[in-house]
Amino acid sequence: MKYVLVSGGVISGVGKGIIASSAGLLLKTMGLKVSSIKIDPYINTDAGTMNPKEHGEVYVLDDGGEVDLDLGNYERYLNVTLTKDNNITLGKIYSQVIERERRGDYLGKTVQVVPHVTGAIEEWIQRVAKVPVDDTGLEPDVCIIELGGTVGDIESMAFVEALCELRRNCGRDDFMQIHVSYVPLVHGEQKTKPTQMAIRSVRSAGLVPDLIACRCEKPLETAAVEKIARFCQVQVPHVLNVRDMPSTYQVPILLYEQDLIALMTTTLRLDEISIPQAMKKKGDHIWSTWKDLCLGLEHLRDKLDIVLVGKYLECPDSYLSVIKSLEHAAMRCRRKLNLIMIDAEHLEPQTNKSDPASFHKAWHAVSTAAGILVPGGFGARGTEGMIAAAKWARESKTPYLGICLGMQLAVVEFARSVCDVPVPQATSYEFDANSDDRVIISMPEHHPGKLGGTMRLGLRPTLWQPDTQWSKLRALYGLNNESINERHRHRYEVNPSYIDQLQNKGLTFIGKDETGVRQEIIELKDHPWFVGVQFHPEYLSRVLEPRFIAAAAKILDEITAEGSRVSSNGGQVNGLTNGNHAALYRLPVL
Q1: Per-residue model confidence as pLDDT tens digits over 256-286
Q2: Roughly how many angstroms between the first and final C-alpha of the chain, as a whole number?
Q3: Looking at the predicted structure, is the pLDDT value of residue 446 above 70?
Q4: What is the DSSP string of 97-142?
Q5: Quick one: 132 exposed, middle or buried, by C-beta within 10 A (0-12, 13-18, 19+)?
Q6: Active site residues
């Protein structure tokens, strides 16, 4: 097993995840099998209870793991399927060590950070790194390890020590480190001192970076590169110039041009690994497809306006997977995505009184958009604005896609406006728990006294219902499919008692779970595209296999036909359409 450690210094959020994913992608283009591990030095067991406005989105895996959003980057770039064990937190490690101590596994020894906690970390990494993550079903050749935060943080000290031990116990050619630093621009001059101090800190902790990836706003000057190489004691080619790019998907190309593949091959002796010819061809195809998809994005002119009506807009990463899915789609169809983020509260009547400018600006964006997307979320704040957006989309025949909460609120809006269900019945139990008679109710699995890990999580089947062959969504999935599998994260659902009333008025529940009780998909038959899904299709979008597609509606028939052709191979499609203007839907597997 070969390990590539990606660490960071100077500041957090400098782009370690993208560089780690890019390095992994380049290894895959060689035909190697690649896995990834993300280390988060916080005491939380997982990311499930974290506030998205502070930490970004919670990414959900097939096994129901609620993990750091960087695992989403790994899955999107590398086209792998990870597990919750691929995200290591200090909380998980301490829980494991304390449980072992209570069982007596340490035979009466004094349990210490070194060697017991560090040993547990090293053992976890070595175990998870060998787990197959791709369609070959074979043990990976290389594992990318990203150490969250910055080296020197008190929270990560145990992990740094464990990684030092891992490096010592590995063969000389089995471990390498890429340290990501930041080179600020001060009064027009690139300052290398922060990078020098960061490398000194890393070395004092016991790690020795093989490569230094320097993040910067503009290309590093030759003098800056030479200075970093000299004072950080590496060769000049080992200083990578990672400047800002028009798209993060172009970072692998940037690193390829700086011979990162050759540097990793030399350091890890990758040329000694026997790679089947079929895997080499697959790698070549991945790379040529990636370049064709990602080059020239800055020159795209055909713009597509999509409105995302959300409630966690303070942190751009709160809806990262949805945004990335739309980006994948836009790249695939060579459109310039103009994603307009609208605060749901700005669509509510009280904002017209408190801030008329924001109210009218928000409604102008919604009313002129090619498509409206309402993503998942929790809590009552902003939901009336989301309901108003769903109503506009339904009445104006504007494309609408509701995900999780967005689907539930579309049901609430339909119940109020079309079925004349009064408030408070036409709301969610999440917002008004005074009675069980609500259109949206709490699921039996939900435990109010315990929030972590109690939702309906992970990959679950959705079965198409009889007489739904008319569905645009089902046609895009492929009419031959009896069911689909998607990732879920929710603790509320549509009340089965209201299904007949809603369906009699035209809101069709075309997909349900295996019990036939839990509602998964809604669609309006007489609408160009009005779809709501209880699951999160964005979690399965990949750069080379996009799920949401932005394109001209005139190719809807073509995409539908293609979906039918590949449905037997697992192709999946979904989205929004809008007359003769824009469309959003999933593209079948390429």
Answers
A1: 999 999 999 999 999 999 999 999 999 999 9
A2: 31
A3: no
A4: HHHHHHHTTTTTPPP-IIIIIHHHHHHHHHHHHTS--STT-S--SE
A5: middle
A6: 404, 536, 538
